[in-house]
Design goal:
The complex is a heterodimer.
Chain A (H helix, E strand, L loop, with lengths): L4 H10 L6 H18 L35 H5 L5 E2 L2 E2 L6
Antiparallel strand pairs in A: 1-2
Chain B lengths: L10 H9 L5 H19 L2 E3 L2 H16 L11 E5 L26 H9 L2 E6 L33 H8 L5 E6 L5 H7 L2 E4 L19 E6 L2 H11 L29 E4 L1 H4 L5 H16 L3 E4 L8 H16 L17 H12 L2 H14 L5 H24 L2 E5 L15 H6 L5 H6 L3 E8 L5 E8 L4 H15 L16
Parallel strand pairs in B: 2-3, 2-4, 7-8, 7-9
Antiparallel strand pairs in B: 1-3, 4-6, 5-6, 5-10, 9-11, 10-11
Classes of the chains: A mainly alpha, B alpha/beta.
């Protein structure tokens, strides 16, 4: 499916990313150019090839003891909030 | 008038002098802070720099030594940190508006290690927003300039870290490399830059871009200094489950043993994509020299490496679109005002992220979306397997692979900024090793006729960073061509 302004806006909704209508034409052009470049991957035969999601896979997941450790970052973390109410992050009303 | 910088003053020699109490850490820090005060505003190397804090850290190192504490070889060494490494109580913005003013409540693993070692931080360096870019022009704040030519880019995304070491504003620096973001700026600025094996260094506290590719790596002015910094940050950390205990410190003396009997492979097939003739000439010169030192030079093939850019620009944006979902204006950073939650999310992200980041989030979301996953993301992961196998095969025959770091010398500011694909194509030689998770080192191999740095790259077997540094060290000793000091570091240079 070719990329057009409608597709850009649909993807933008999925990404929770506001895209101004003034940006649509540029994004259509850039994304089309990148996607047509990556089309070259269709030339390769990848049947029977396992995907690599991460190198070093196959090594055993390392485990550690489940111990209680102090972290003490609550106040500092909350101090970064754009809006808060006591020990809570505050957001626009949802319900 | 401050003393002219000595290009051969290494981190190793600074650390030794400080530990032996021949120089105080404060004395060293003052030299670097004063130099940065002169050149950093013109190069725009730093997003956050606080000379007083640097001197305070140095004074603390002197106190620790005074009290008899044994410190590491990096004690008193001034080190710059890329601004995507979390530093407790020091701004960490990743070059993005969405994190403007953010003060992390914790240190990254590597930052913790360096503090314990007695390193002295010079500041947080400029970078492409969330490490997405190859020129540092995607920083939301300002572009960084190349110390060798202020009209040119320092490379990216870790452009500030590379430039600050090249200009001797810091003795060492840390950056992060996802598709070449340490190696390419190292090449453009004429310093060493190492992307360690994936898993060699804990990513805890490195702001995530593409988690299966991201790796923290050192910048330095000598091969030995690269090892010194790598040794301090490598190894297992339980807070990053991909970090591995296979990463062990490198014996510095092993770097002096030369290359006799070593097999070095040249991927001639990949070079056919096009390389600047001066870079090809530099590759030939280094190859001859290494051969003269007893290395065996052989041809290797990486048949799928030419598909690396296409593979990378699906995998990295896909992972980024997921990783960057956390910037929602709720817990930290910038929030756009709105009465409605969904609009607040979209507006915060639309206004807080710059062009390149938005482009990659859209591309990644598209590549992962229903109906496209198999054609794009899944296929890219399979091609990644083919690229990895190429390296496995080639490195059965060769101990290391030698190739250029970049196809061209540093380009001019503004030259590629409006053509994202042209910018991406510049990464053709650095991305393959990233997909393979292999260690890769860029080392300075000379300069062009117009006095711009050239870097070559060595790629090796997993956790064999030592071999790469040993080859680069051999070239370094035999080339008779010290790094040199860009005019700006001497207080000269046009503005």
């Amino acid at each position: 499916m070719p990329i057009d302004a409608k597709v850009v806006q649909q993807v933008a909704v999925l990404a929770r990313l506001q895209v101004e209508s003034s940006e649509e034409a540029r994004l259509v052009k850039e994304l089309t150019s990148i996607l047509s470049y990556v089309e070259q991957l269709q030339d390769l035969d990848v049947s029977g090839i396992e995907p690599t999601s991460q190198v070093g896979e196959g090594t055993k997941a390392p485990l550690r003891e489940d111990e209680v450790k102090p972290s003490n970052v609550r106040d500092e973390a909350l101090a970064q909030a754009p809006d808060r109410d006591g020990d809570y992050f505050r957001v626009p009303q949802v319900v | 008038m401050t003393k002219k910088p000595d290009p051969l003053e290494t981190a190793e020699s600074i650390g030794r002098a400080v530990r032996n109490r021949e120089r105080s850490a404060v004395e060293v820090a003052r030299v670097f802070v004063e130099r940065a005060e002169r050149s950093a505003p013109r190069l725009s190397t730093y997003l956050h720099r606080d000379g007083a804090r640097t001197l305070e850290m140095a004074a603390e190192v002197d106190r620790r030594l005074e009290s008899g504490e044994k410190l590491s070889p990096l004690a008193g060494v001034p080190i710059a940190l890329k601004d995507n490494l979390c530093t407790h109580g020091i701004p960490t913005t990743c070059g993005s508006r969405i994190l403007e003013g953010y003060l992390p409540p914790y240190d990254a693993h590597v930052v913790e290690r360096l503090r314990a070692a007695g390193a002295v931080f010079t500041g947080k360096t400029n970078c492409d927003e969330f490490a997405m870019g190859s020129s540092t022009e995607n920083s939301a704040y300002f572009p960084t300039r190349n110390p060798w030519d202020l009209d040119r880019v320092p490379g990216g995304s870790s452009g500030g870290s590379a430039a600050t070491v090249a200009a001797l504003e810091a003795s060492l620096a840390l950056g992060s490399d996802t598709g070449g973001s340490v190696r390419q700026p190292a090449a453009f600025c004429g310093v060493f830059g190492l992307k360690p094996t994936y898993g060699a260094v804990s990513r805890y506290g490195l702001v995530a871009f593409a988690s299966s590719l991201d790796q923290i790596g050192p910048f330095a002015r000598t091969a030995r200094d690269v090892a010194l910094l790598f040794n301090e940050i490598c190894g297992r950390d339980e807070r990053d489950m991909t970090s591995r205990s296979d990463a062990t410190p490198i014996d510095l003396e092993s770097l002096e043993r030369g290359v006799r009997g070593m097999k070095i492979g040249i991927p001639r097939d990949l070079l056919s994509v096009g390389v600047d003739p001066e870079i090809t000439a530099s590759l030939d010169r280094v190859t001859k020299k290494l051969s003269g030192e007893g290395a065996e030079i052989l041809d290797v093939t990486l048949p799928h490496a030419r598909y690396s850019i296409a593979t990378y620009y699906l995998i990295a944006p896909a992972e980024a679109s997921s990783n960057l979902a956390r910037y929602d204006g709720v817990r930290y950073g910038f929030r756009a005002k709105s009465d409605d939650l969904q609009t607040m999310y979209a507006s915060t992200r639309g206004k807080g992220f710059g062009r390149e980041v938005r482009r990659r989030i859209l591309l990644g979301t598209y590549a992962l979306s229903a109906g496209y996953y198999d054609a794009y993301y899944l296929r890219a992961m399979k091609v990644r397997t083919l690229v990895r196998r190429d390296f496995d095969q080639a490195l059965l025959r060769a101990d290391a692979i030698l190739l250029p770091t970049t196809p061209t010398p540093p380009f001019k500011l503004g030259e590629k900024v409006d053509d994202p694909l042209a910018m991406y194509l510049n990464d053709i030689f650095s991305i393959p090793a990233s997909l393979a998770g292999a260690p890769a080192l860029s080392f300075p191999s000379g300069r062009t006729r117009s006095n711009l740095p050239i870097g070559l790259q060595l790629v090796g077997r997993p956790f064999d960073e030592g071999t790469l540094l040993r080859i680069a060290r051999t070239w370094e000793k035999k080339s008779g061509d010290p790094l040199g000091v860009p005019p700006i570091a001497n207080g000269g240079a046009r503005t």
